[in-house]
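Exercise 7 asks you to align residues with tokens for two separate proteins.
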Amino acid sequence: MLVVTLSLCGCAGQPSSGKHAVERIELTFGTQVPSTHPEGVATLAWIDKIKNETDGQVNITPYWTSTLTSEEEIFEEIVRGVADIGSIGSACWAPHGFDLLKAQGMFYYGIVQPEICRYIDSEVCTKFPEIDAEFSDVKTLAKSTVSTFHLATRNSPIRKAEDLKGLTIICPPQYIVPIIEMGAEGVFIPYGEAYMSLEKGISDGIICPFEALKTYSLGEVVKYVTRLDFSLGPMPMVGMGLECWNNLPADIQRVFENNVEWYGLEIENHFAQADQDGIEFANKQGVEFIELSVEELDKFYEVMETLALKEAAKLDEKGLPGTEIFREIRRLYDESA
């Protein structure tokens, strides 16, 4: 809840009559990640930056690991004001809504360069305002690419697409259907529960970013990691409820707006570093990293393209420009590659 208090401030050596009232703005930040997570580390730096650039007027208190907001409903909770600000990137896992955001998980496959992702996103969002409209109930304070996803397995090295057949793979929701199409069983469970599932042999593998090999200690329970570079594309990562935003003074709003790009890049950079840390951690555990041939990787991407077009057609039926967005993303990537 936004709290505004007044305090008296004045220049040193001046009489008390020279003091003036200054608003102190207290904001809450809800997130499902810990302070050590790449987004959490970036958020702490951003909180300090906002405080410094508002001369101490704005103080943001973070609530980590879902102690104020939930992972499943955080977007709605930010809209309702449960917290003033929050991590809204988890909207891509929400069971309802955000159809275009979820489709990105299939549309951006193989696009790994952050600068190209940002360029494509800027062009596509300008051409198709329906994308940003999904987040019109909040003020976006950071937009960022995140780590790409790969396939980590316990005992079965994946050196070709056929090696997936018969395996049970933990997946983000976007990748369950592609994994099923490749002959495996796709299941969704939170990453926090993945370690036990893999350790006990309930699951054979997991689609995850490199950083999860360390942050969730998955490098201890897998022997192989096959690089796939499945990308979710850029997405709004942090947002503020509109009621809270509209109650902020204009000069404070400008400080937040001037830091949107910085915050997004800070998140991106910390994810990149966390990926490197994950690779180093897994190497120390003796994990083998597998690079597929172009021909084998294309087998994965051909499945992704087929399913992406089907998903785009479903969006078309809902009155959204799904096929146009997919083709524009791939066209811009082909031109940039």
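Second protein for Exercise 7:
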Amino acid sequence: MRRVPLFLTGAAAIFFLAACQGPQRILDPRSPSAARIAELWWVMFGLAAAVTIVVLVILSFAVHRGQQRQRGVDPGRVNGATLVWGGGVIVPVMVIFYLVVYTVRVGADVYSPPDTNPDHLVIEVVGHKFWWEVRYPQHRITTANEIYIPAGQTVRVLVTSPDVIHSFWVPQLHGKIDMIPGRINNIWLRADEPGLFRGQCAEYCGSGHALMAFWVEAMPEDKFAAWVDRRRAPAPEPPHPEIARGREVFLQAGCHECHATRGAPLPPRLGQVGPDLSDFGRRRTIAAGTLPNNRGNLGGWILDPQRIKPGSRMPGTALAGDDLQALLTYLQSLR
């Protein structure tokens, strides 16, 4: 029986420390907004701990008085009305009132525009079932499932959705913001220093919800500028016959009907259903954070995406072995 409290203590410690580890650790903020949210968490945790301690003290006091009565000792009388009104009404109301006021102040600080600078970098993020479309309207760049921002700069992110409600959340950089069909919401991101931060859809949106993640990479300003220049540059011709053959397979197999790539000629209104693949070769993951981006996983994804991510709109593609290998080479060359 003595092992039970020890087990419960360990389980509670694991529960409370779960937010401290992993790629989405909310208690390791890397931006002013995330720091304010973490501060709110610690305030709520501190008050909850204080209330718990007070309750345990009162409980211990009551148990002690009961033991005294069992031994025939008169513990004296306690004014029950004072305990009920003080501990059951006045103190809880004061704690809740303080938390409400403090939470509203934090929310106002976090979600208000940081300044009136009209030259902020603007990024448009569209949540689809179940992937992320990312657009840079000032640079005419479109990508997917990865967001690149300059470190040390405030970036305005406009979010929406064409299908169901999603929620955009990068715990180390900011709080959550809903992506509602027919409405544009905005959030301000700022990374204090270069780094890689994982984001996640935080609103249940269907069978693929748990497999709808993305990455935010904060770069030094010169590297971000170089990335913009590289993406805006015309796509080079395939430098190798196998890559050229892979591009032909991409077109012949109908991949271009959903996916756009730089350098692949597309008829009007095609290539707008699925993620833009123009820089697919440099992405870290496949299918919005579902699998590491390597040749084996990519081949399995192309052949049978529903086995890997049920609910995805991408159909399976039956390709001969040589055609599949050429297509993999082409996709991995896209940077």
